[in-house]
Amino acid sequence: MPELIFSTETLAPLDLLRSEIQSGIAETKIKEYPLLNRVQKRDAYQTAIHWPVSVGTGNTYGRATSETPNQNSTTDTNLQASLPIGSRVLEHKFSIDLTQATQALRIAPQALRNLYRGKLEAGMDALMKQLETLLYTGDGSNASHGIVGLNRAMSNAVTGPPATNRYAEIDGVAFPGWTSHNETAGANRALTTDLLRAATTGQGKLGGNFDYVLTTFDLADAMEKIFETRLAVNRMGGSFDLSFTGLTYKDREVHKSIYTPDRSIYFLNTSDLYLHTYALAPALSTMPGGDSQVVNAQGLNILLTRMPQTNPHAIDMILSVQAQFQLQNRKSACALLRVQ
Questions:
Q1: Quick one: which of 179, 30, 133, 245 has its CA closest to 254?
Q2: Which of 27, 62, 114, 156 has most Cβ atoms within 10 angstroms of its Cβ?
């Protein structure tokens, strides 16, 4: 009988791929995913994310020490915010030619690792780019893979049915303390220092603050132009440096991203921003077979699955993630919109 030299388990070892994904995710910090890198990461084990929210409405009163306490006094209203997670999955599929994998394994284990590295890096880039985009634009629909991003979380005039100011099952119209400040207008406007101040002042009046500023490359250039009259010329080794070496606003660094929506500047308190990813590792550890593994790196739970072979000459793999963004306090996000 002919000898079976390699199996698909040999040619697609999950342990090898797992270490490659961990390395790939670890390198995302140096890539252009500033919001994804900055939000705090949490594991999810339930199909909904719940947290308590105090929306105010309490009052105070005075009385003499000899009087009975006022039984009609009201305390702050505490509600339960809720976001779904787990029913939608974002994934990327890639294939490895069996002939190439066999050849690589004959050469050396490192050759097989190198073969998968390119596919895994491309797959992780695809997932990270989509996650970074949805952290801004996700509206909770199937097209957004269930993710509710910043724009919807901050919106105080959500269009479409129902036209309400709801986020995480709490209505901001009924509870004005559950709102974000959006400095916007009906038409695009030139960026000015007055608009920057209006945005952050409005956030401050709600009781919010920020430690992180995100915008587009074009608006970062516009901010530099606003302040270029204050630019000092530095002479360095016989040459003159006429550019900004960094950009901050109120001592907070301004970060530029190609994924930030056009004509937008975000002022964020990142201590209230979370990205939850579903943690399947405990369940997988109790199931027979070894065709799936969860890789957790930098707090992201990425599921790696080797699919059943439908083509005898290819190995199909899937990278997937079940994710949900959480803005824990709506006051912690402010947007300056429709500026250029």
A1: 245
A2: 156
